[in-house]
Predict the structure.
Amino acid sequence: MKLSRYFSDLRKAYEAELDDLTSDSEGKDVLNKRLAAKRSEIGFLVQMLDYSPEMVAVVFHRAFRFPKLAAMQRLLTLPPEALPTWPELAGTVVLEPWAQTVALKVLAEPGGAAFMTVAACLECLHAHGIGSAEAAQDASDDEEDRRSDEGDDGDGLSADDASDPPDGRSLDEAGADWLADQGFERKD
């Protein structure tokens, strides 16, 4: 399954947000405490639904069950404008009872129904490890593309560095010529 660019990018941001919330400076697990604090601030957080959905979506961490996982996986391939809204997901996603109050506050906002679909998709990605292998492959592909763009074959030399100069001289001859041009005496 190939994630849409939208969910590929958002997944990374969502995972980073969860990582930031997971432990304090001493390395203690404080995720539940921090999530409870975020949930209590939902009235403020709803202002970020459009421009930072990953920062709001974390309040729904572990709030969804996915009885129709295949349907959710299909949604993860779509661009945001093609996603159904929350009411259209009935039966595909089940909201845990503890999250109902928070969801009602979000759904009361303009764009709240669309956001709830995005939040469910992000949690599905996280809960089922969808996209993790793809992210690793993308990182590998990005490194390979970078090397290719720079002409690097992995040894720090570009393809041009490894070949003889175009005028037919050997690398040794070209190097000796360059050193002589710099004022060094030739070693013959």
Q: What stands out?
A: The beta strands are 64-65, 94-95. The first helix runs from residue 5 to 22. Residues 133-142, 154-162 have pLDDT under 50 and may be disordered. Residues 5-134 form one domain.
